[in-house]
């Protein structure tokens, strides 16, 4: 089955036949995690870095923000038997508008929050494709564990 | 090669605009006009009157009592909102079409436009300058030129644009300008002129993706709204985030970074409800 992850959304699976995909990553960040030992993986697509801008919305939907979405993504994978040591972690997105100062740089702030959280929790990012201003689509194939992205018609394995 | 004027000449066939819409655009654009003149025009268009009453009584407008007559509905919504209702109806079906050249599937341009209009409507709460409500229509129509720009965008031109934006780090619009000497924003502004929309709308459409050439609040509002729509994933297409903006926009409007992010969250939250309201009309 093919699961589509919307904006401010997360999908997870432990079925080898499943593929998870998230489209239209602009300044949003997509985090794909996968544990090959138990075949558990998921993709989170968050929109904003910090839930402090609207705590109420974060309670209703933790996947809107990086600081609430990332722990939820990992927590759900652990519930399905994944372990931190076995997880492959891939990050894509965080594109930016072209500006001299970083006022509108949500993409950059989205990437920074993920890096901070991973660093604090001793999680290593296996592969990433972030920044620039290009659009991205991120894929995770449960059976093979392949994670890749496409952008403007080109496929890049991550 | 087609000039921008050849391209704009085809707009009448693609998007027919009823006389009521053009008359309303003229009245609302005229500073001396009164609400009575708006009411007079709307009253003669039954379908439009029904739409306006429906929206004035919808939960989005949060009325504290039922509004039964068209005058009260227009007063409640404001003439800027009436203009947005009229033009969204005119462009909806054509904006829902896929635009392969821009990487837009069915509905993508429509969703980008609606998200931008929602952002414009909500932005006014977070700034310290007055932004006229015609900014909603400007935000709704800011990318209307893409519908006609595709006439000069065969696959090889798209490849050239993509090459320019990734290698030269310029915006999509700047790449269009380099290849054609005009952009989808210029086409959009010419369309607005054809429709006799207020000059402020035409200006905002033309300059929304150029640096500080024009610095009025409506143009700045459209610049921010375009970014908000992309930040919530509406209208990413082939362009991604390759939009040029100067952070001075935020200074001029008095918009803080936290409020900009809050505006993104609010626009995303309201999007489905507003979309449903437009779909059911």
Architecture overview:
The complex is a heterodimer of chains A (158) and B (281). Chain A is of the alpha+beta class and 158 residues long. Chain A has one domain (2-157): 60s Ribosomal Protein L30, Chain: A, CATH 3.30.1330.200. Helix content of chain A is 22%, strand content 35%. Chain A is built from three helices and ten strands. In chain A, the strands form two sheets. A five-stranded mixed β-sheet of chain A has the order 1-3-8-9-10, with no helix packed on it. A five-stranded mixed β-sheet of chain A has the order 2-5-4-6-7. Chain A is globular. Chain B is mostly helical. Chain B has a single domain, classed as Orthogonal Bundle (Hypothetical protein af1432), CATH 1.10.3210.10. Chain B contains 17 helices and no strands. Chain B has helices spanning 4-9, 11-14, 19-29, 35-43, 46-56, 70-77, 79-95, 108-123, 135-141, 146-149, 155-167, 172-180, 184-194, 199-207, 217-231, 248-253, 257-279. In chain B, helix 8 (108-123) packs across helix 15 and helix 14 (199-207) packs across helix 15. The mean pLDDT of chain B is 89. At the A-B interface, loops of A face helix 11, helix 15 and helix 17 of B.
Index terms:
heterodimer, A: 158 residues, alpha+beta, 60s Ribosomal Protein L30, Chain: A, 3 helices, 10 strands, globular, B: 281 residues, mainly alpha, Hypothetical protein af1432, 17 helices
Compose a concise summary of this entry.
The complex is a heterodimer of chains A (158) and B (281). Chain A is an alpha+beta fold and 158 residues long. Chain A has helices at 55-60, 66-79, 106-120; strands spanning 2-5, 9-13, 19-25, 29-35, 40-46, 88-93, 127-130, 136-141, 147-151, 154-157.
Q: Strand fraction band of chain A? A: 25-35%
From the helix content, strand content and strand pairing of chain B, which structural class follows? mainly alpha
Write down the CATH topology of chain A.
60s Ribosomal Protein L30, Chain: A
Molecular shape of chain A: globular
* Oligomeric state of this protein: heterodimer
Largest interface, counted with CB-CB under 8 A? A-B, 37 and 36 residues
Q: Poorly predicted ranges of chain A (pLDDT <50, ≥5 residues)? A: none
Strand content of chain B: under 5%
The secondary-structure element order of chain B is HHHHHHHHHHHHHHHHH
For the sheet with most strands of chain A, the description reads: 5 strands, mixed
Helical amount of chain B:
55-70%
Using the coordinates shown, work out and report the CATH topology of chain B: Hypothetical protein af1432
Taking all residues together, what is the mean pLDDT of chain A?
Answer: 96
Helical run tally of chain A: 3
How many distinct beta strands of chain A?
10
Supply the number of helical segments of chain B: 17
What's the number of domains of chain A? 1
Number of domains of chain B: 1
Q: What percent of residues of chain A adopt helix (DSSP H or I)?
A: 10-25%
């Amino acid at each position: 089955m093919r699961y589509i992850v919307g904006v401010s959304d997360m999908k997870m699976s432990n079925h080898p036949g499943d593929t998870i995909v998230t489209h239209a990553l602009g300044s949003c960040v997509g985090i794909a995690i996968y544990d090959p030992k138990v075949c558990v993986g998921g993709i989170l697509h968050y929109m904003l870095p910090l839930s402090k801008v609207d705590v109420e919305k974060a309670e209703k939907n933790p996947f809107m923000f990086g600081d609430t979405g990332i722990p939820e993504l990992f927590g759900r994978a652990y519930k399905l038997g994944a372990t931190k040591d076995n997880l492959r972690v891939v990050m894509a997105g965080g594109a930016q508008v072209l500006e001299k100062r970083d006022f509108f740089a949500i993409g950059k702030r989205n990437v920074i929050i993920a890096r901070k959280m991973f660093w604090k929790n001793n999680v290593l990012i296996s592969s990433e494709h972030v920044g620039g201003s290009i659009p991205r689509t991120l894929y995770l194939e449960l059976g093979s564990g392949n994670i890749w992205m496409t952008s403007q018609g080109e496929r890049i394995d991550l | 090669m087609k000039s921008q004027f050849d391209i704009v000449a085809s707009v009448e066939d693609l998007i027919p605009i009823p006389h009521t819409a053009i008359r309303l655009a003229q009245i609302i654009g005229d500073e001396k006009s009164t609400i009575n003149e708006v009411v007079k025009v709307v009253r003669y268009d039954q379908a439009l009157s029904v739409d306006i009453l429906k929206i004035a009584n919808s939960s989005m407008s949060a009325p504290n009592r039922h509004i039964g007559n068209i005058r009260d509905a227009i007063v409640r919504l404001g003439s800027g909102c009436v203009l947005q209702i009229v033009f969204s109806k005119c462009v909806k079906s054509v904006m829902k079409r896929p635009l392969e050249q821009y990487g837009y599937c069915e509905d993508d341009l429509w969703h980008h436009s609606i998200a931008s209009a929602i952002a414009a409507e909500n932005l006014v709460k977070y700034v310290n300058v007055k932004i006229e409500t015609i900014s909603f229509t400007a935000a709704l129509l800011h990318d209307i030129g893409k519908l006609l720009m595709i006439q000069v965008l065969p696959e090889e031109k798209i490849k050239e644009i993509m090459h320019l934006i990734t290698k030269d780090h310029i915006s999509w619009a700047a790449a269009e300008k380099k290849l054609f000497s005009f952009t989808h924003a210029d086409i959009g502004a010419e369309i607005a002129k054809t429709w006799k929309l207020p000059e402020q709308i035409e200006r905002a459409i033309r300059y929304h993706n150029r640096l500080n050439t024009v610095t009025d609040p409506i143009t700045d509002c459209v610049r921010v709204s375009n970014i908000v729509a992309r930040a919530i994933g509406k209208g990413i297409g082939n362009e991604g985030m390759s939009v040029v903006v100067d952070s001075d926009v935020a200074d001029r409007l008095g918009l803080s970074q936290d409020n900009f992010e809050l505006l993104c969250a609010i626009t995303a939250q309201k999007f489905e409800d507003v979309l449903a309201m437009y779909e059911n009309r």
